[in-house]
Structures are given as structure tokens and as C-alpha cells.
Amino acid sequence: MSEAEAVLEQPRRSAGRMIVRNTLFGMGAQVALRVLGFVFNVLVIRTLGDSEFGRYSVVLAWAGLFSVIGDMGVTQYMTREVARNAERANQLFWNTAALRFILSIVAIVVTIAGAVAKPYESEVVLAIALYTSSYFLQALLAPLQGIIAGNERLDYLSVFTVIGQIIFMVAGGLFLFAGLNFVWLVVASLLNLPVLIALSFWVVRRYRMQPPRFRVEPRTWGRLLMAGMPFAIIQLALTFNFHVDTLILETFQSAAMVGWYNAAYHLTRSFLILTSALIVAMPVTLAREHAHDPKSVLPWYYRSTKFMVFLGLPLAVGGTLLADKIIRVLYGLEYAPASIAFAILIWDTPLLMYTALCGNLTTAIKKESRAMWIYLSLAALNLVLNLLFIPTYGLIAASLMTVAAELTGAILFYVFFRREFGAGLGFTHMVRLIIAAILMGIVVYLLRGQHLLVNISISAIFYVVVVWLIGALSADERAMLTGMVKRRFGGVLRRMHA
After folding, report:
1. Is 90 exceeded by the pLDDT of residue 461?
2. Would you list the domain boundaries of the chain?
3. Does a cis peptide bond (omega within 30 degrees of 0) precede residue 119?
4. What's the confidence (pLDDT) of residue 188?
5. Cβ atoms of 415 and 425 closer than 8 Å
6. Does the model's pTM come out above 0.85?
7. Which of 143, 169, 198, 385 is the most exposed place for a label (fewest CB within 10 A)?
8. How far apart are the C-alpha atoms of 177 and 173, rounded to whole Å?
9. Beta carbons within 8 Å of 369's beta carbon, 6+ residues apart
10. Any idea what DSSP says for residue 118?
11. Alpha helix locations (H) across 154-220?
């Protein structure tokens, strides 16, 4: 039986229901995760101080830069193939795990040797070595979670992510309160992996997703590496884009400036909670739907893009106007220079929402090679711009170049999907969303003298009301939103009256 026939014989599941379920579980997990992570991140930044936090950021950036060697895209390829045809797990699981174990050795050697040659100080090298030791456990954990994701049980993975993060934060918090340095934060990040392996194995057995008996076929590894190569290049380019600014900043500027920049950078990334669950939930389900009906992907792209604009624009406008207050309240006066970086980097948030959505959609429609070339272009642009401007302009250059690269990526993805799917985003409604965000910005500015939470609350309500009144949402979107509110609160009101 061919792969296409096997796909057609699989029972159809509602794409909408699967995406909504996985998004809701993912959103719930992300809310819990981001709230806990946000509080913990503030604790880490305040406790370590700008210079020590800068060194910790260098460890994560350097290790992250080479982490793709430990996977080479084979896990993402396996997940996509299992989503399209669950029987593929029989061929791919153990070969993926064995190949990842071998690649982990290579990744560890390259990462540590590079850190020694750089040369980084001994504590930084030690932290990098500890961080990379997790690759051996990840060699088993990642394929297990790939099977779970391929079977569209992202609800379990969302819960596991929260559990793992709680273990890390409890252990890391204890180490910080004990007065230990940033190296022990890396130690804390290793403690959750055995627990996550056990939980993932339980789910695989519980729902009979179990892989076949142990059997590896080294002759297939070359084909597996080639199939995973586009995903590996995408991972490398993304990781490079996320970390190259920190590494160049560390080379030419002080550790304190690295700390300021990463404090702002991490804060802007925390707002991705609003869309990350949807972005993660869509590809595995839409990969299955695309195998049956390629046109079924189109409405998900249009609505999701508009959702990104609806949320991202007011975040960027409000964040820029309130940057100094936000940084001062969260991190204290020591991090005051980070407010400049935050005011710029917050504009990267809506752009990253869109490019992350597009990158994952290319995987679902088997166009990952297009995403690969886009991300490679961004990596080259990021490297050149950062090398040109960071040595002279430091923090401001790093922030501006990050936004410039992401804007370029958004434009390239838009052109690709416009050609692939055609028009459908609704230019008139987009312009009205922009007008609503501008009007909200005026309110934010007028209320700058008020308490930060008061300003944010009033401005957010004003934005939603303006969006509704000026017709920035289409009739279908307004009806869908009204229906969701009625279903959510109607039952509550009925129970209250009963």
C-alpha cells in the first residue's frame, strides 16, 4: 500500500476540533508557563545582576548555536511523517533515536571545543559542558515526544512542558537563594529530563503509540539525514538569528550590556504566549488535512495572520510608549538602559508571530525548502548587519538589526504565501486594525502619568472597543467572537440563575 493510500484509509478527525483542543491546552500550559517563567526570569535577572546575567546569556547563546548538530532536523521530519501517516513510526523511531545519540556526541565535542578555543573563561566553559550533556537524554526524549506530537496529543506535551519548567524553576530558585552562581541554573535545567522521559514513555504506552521492538537500520540513516536536512538548516538559521546578536555583542561590548539586551529580549519573547500555542498546534493537524485536501489550509492561514495583527500591533505600540516604566518596575534602575532595547525589540514580537506561523505552515504543506532559503537569507543578513553596527552602536544596533531582519522575513513569507494561496487577508480590515492601534497609542500617551496597570487596562479596553466599532473585524469574525462569548458566559449565567 502506498503512503497516499495509507493516509486516505486513516479515520478523519475534525481539523478544527483538534487545533482548538491542542491550542486551548497549549494556551493554558503557556499561560501557566509564561506566568511562572516570567516571575522566575525577573528573579534570575535581579538576583544575578547585569554582568552575571550577561554571562548566563552567553552560555545559552553559545550552546544554542551548535545544538542543531545534535538533531539535524530528523526529529521534526519524523514528527511530520507520523502526523501524515502514523505507521511511519515503525520505521523511524529507533533509527531517529540512535542517529540522535551519535549526533549528540559530535555536538558536545564541537560545542565545548569551540568554547575553549574562543576562549571563554572556565566557568562559562563548565556551564556549556553541563548544558550539552543533556543531549544524550534528549536523544530519547525528542523522538518519544515526536510520536506524541505526530498523533496530535499536544495537550499532554503542554502539560509536560509545565511540569518540566516547574522542576527547573524550583531547583533554580533554591540554588539562587543559596547564593550559588549561574552555573547552577544550568544544573537545574538538567533535573527535569528523566521525569519527562518517564512521562512521555507512559503516554506512548497508554495510548498504544508504542514504537516497534528495538531495531536500527544504519543503512537508512543517510536517507534520514537527507530528509531532515531542510529542517536542520531552518533550525540552524533560526537559532543563529536568535543568538548571533548576543555573541557579537559579547565580543565587542561589556557583559553588563549583554545583560541589558537579553533582559529586554527575553521580555519581548514572553508576549509570544498569546500565539505560540496556536502556532504549535496547527502544523501537525494541518499536515494531515493537507494530505487529504490541500485547499483546507488556506482559511487557517488567513484567519491566523489577522489574529497575529490584532494582537501584535497594540503590543508594539503600547510597549514602545511604556518601555521605561515597564523595565523600571520589573528589573529596577540597574537595568534602565534596557528600556531603549525594549522599545525597539517589542516591534519584533508581531513580526515573529507571523514568521513563526509561516515557517510552521511550510512544514504542513511540504514546502519547508522555501522556509529554509528564507531563514538562511535572514541569517546572512543578521550576521552582516550586526557585525557592521554592533561594534560602534552596541545595544541600539543589536535591537534595530533584530527587527530589520524579522521584517525582511515577514515580507518574504508574505510574498510566498500570496503567490501560493492568493489574496484573502482583507486589506481594508488590516488598515482599520492599524488605525485602532494608533488611536490606542494616543490614549497610552495621555495616560502616562497613571499607574502602569491602570494605563494598560484602560488602553486595552479602548482598543477592543474601537476595533469593534470601526468594523476592523469581518462579519464572520464578529459572529464567531460573539458566539464564543455567549457559549462561554451563557452557561455561567444559567447556572447562577439556577
Report:
1. yes
2. 14-425, 429-498
3. yes
4. 94
5. no
6. no
7. 198
8. 6
9. 230
10. T
11. 154-177, 183-190, 193-206
